[in-house]
Every structure is written in structure tokens, then in C-alpha cells.
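Appendix C. Worked example: Glycolipid-binding domain-containing protein
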Amino acid sequence: MSKQVMFWEKQETSGTEYLELTYVDHTLRAESTVLFIEEGVPQKVTYRVKFDPNWVVKDLYIKNHTLDKTLSLSSKEGGCWFDNNGVEIHSLRGAIDIDISCTPFTNSLPINRLTWRSGKPEVLQMVYVSANDLSFKKVKQVYTLIHDEETRTFHYSSRSFESPIIVDKNGFVIEYPELFKRKS
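Step 2, the predicted output written as C-alpha cells:
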């Protein structure tokens, strides 16, 4: 077993994230606690994600402690998603990766899952989860590698939002300008 710990500060408002990523028996697991203020309300969100060795999400469990609300999703081959009762969520079909609104970590999933070529955009279908109310939907996001040296920079866009995302050599977010900055 190996473990990596990452810590981010939220730049836009007050907040932090502490994440442990473990590699055990050909499985990756992320466990995290995120504390932040949203519209003046303190929030605590915890999540667990289990992946296969290719960074494909298998299970997601997320809890908004402020609302005392949980969400549990699982994924099968080909981007089929299921709720905690085993019922398929057809509206998410085709999405491979997840994007949880309160964390930069989930931006690392497609970055680590795909092979990148500079300047070639990758259009992805993502399961977007709002940490504020645990609602979810499928959204289109586009990542384009624009700089690849010691660190890599991606241009990210989704709907009308665009931003660079800077990652380390292992594909983990160092900086998501004006939103998150990694401290360790």
C-alpha cells in the first residue's frame, strides 16, 4: 500500500481540503474532507471515490454534513451509472469521470486517465455533482493540453466558464487560478 496526502486552499472564498489517496491491490481510493463557506454558510463535505488502475471511477460516496445529506453512485463499463439501489441513471449514460464542485482533485481524473497531445482538445462527458445540494447532472467539459514541461497546463472549459489548470508531473492540480491552490 502507498499513500499520498494533498491539501488545497480555496482561493475564491475561505476553505480547505485534506485528501488521502491510497493505492491498494490495483485499486485507487480517495478520501477527503472539504471545509468551505458558501453564501455565508459554513459547509463540511466529505467524499470517497474508488477507481480502477486506469483512473475510471467505480464508486462515489459524498456527504454534505451541513445538510445531513448523502449521495452514492456507482459506475459500470461504458459509462453506465447506478444509484445506491442499483437502478441505472439513464441521464448519466456515457459519462466516465466525475467533477465535484468543491474540489480540484476530480479535475485530475481525466488528466490521469487519458493520453494527451499538446493542442488537441478532449471533449468529455462528466457527472457534475454540486457539493452544495448533492444534485448531479451530465455536463460537457473540454480539456486541452497547452504546456507540457515540468508542470503541465490545461485549458479547461465548460459552458461559459474557462480557466487554465496547472498540474504536477503526476497529474494532480497545483493551481486552479482564483479557485484552488495546493499547499502540499
